[in-house]
Specification:
- Helices cover about 25% and strands about 25% of the residues.
- The chain is of the alpha/beta class.
- The protein has a 7-stranded parallel beta sheet, covered by helices on one side.
- β6, α3 and β7 form a beta-alpha-beta unit.
- The radius of gyration is 18 Å and the shape is globular.
């Protein structure tokens, strides 16, 4: 009965030593929020999630009441978000923060996750945060990322934090026709990628 009034839920999942429990736990997790009709804020950090199951024995749960979503993927594979969104769909999102480690599949995580929100009409605020990792420092390489954002027609606010990672500009153009505020935080001094992003957005307003 207590879940009927629950408005905020925060979860930390660390699968480093419990990979075999990943699918059973996610399946059980997907059933819980459906019993929380007024849940408005959902925060989940996952560590070492490396699984994808095509034929999950569970129904997809929609959570239209959740308007504020934070998903942090630390050292996760690109397949993990696909499994998560096969179980839970966040259809009422307004504000979304996505945090992820570049290693091992940062680019795939970003593409897979943002593709879930392209058509949501109330999705207007996005924060993207790269989580620091020691992996590339250990092997003596510079962190680089092909940083791209899909077409998000209703987005009005975009905040980007790349930490110790050097972004590389994608070939495709950014398409954010309603963006009103662009914020860079905790980024390296190399800003050529972000200048290109700003120029693309400026051209959109001129052509519109």
């Amino acid at each position: 009965a207590g879940t009927m009034s629950l408005k905020s839920l925060q979860i930390l999942l660390d699968f480093q030593e419990f990979h075999s429990m990943m699918i059973p736990f996610l399946t059980a997790l997907s059933a819980f929020p459906s019993s929380c009709p007024v849940l408005a804020q959902f925060v989940m950090e996952t560590r070492d999630g490396h699984t994808y199951a095509e034929n999950l024995q569970a129904n997809t749960v929609e959570l239209p009441s959740v308007t504020e979503l934070t998903l942090l993927f630390r050292n996760c594979s690109g397949e993990f978000p696909r499994t998560l969104f096969g179980l839970i769909r966040f259809t009422g999102i307004q504000n979304f923060e996505l945090g992820y480690s570049l290693y091992p599949d940062g680019e795939d995580i970003m593409k897979e996750t943002l593709s879930q929100f392209i058509s949501l009409p109330n999705f207007t605020k996005l924060r993207i945060r790269l989580l620091k990792t020691t992996y590339y420092e250990m092997i003596g390489r510079t962190n680089t990322l092909q940083f791209s954002v899909p077409r998000l027609p209703h987005l009005r606010y975009l905040e980007i934090s790349t930490s110790d990672t050097e972004p590389r500009s994608p070939e495709e153009q950014f398409d954010l026709p309603n963006l009103r505020e662009l914020v860079f935080k905790d980024c390296l001094e190399e800003m050529s990628h972000f200048k290109k992003l700003c120029d693309q957005i400026r051209l959109q307003y001129r052509s519109g």
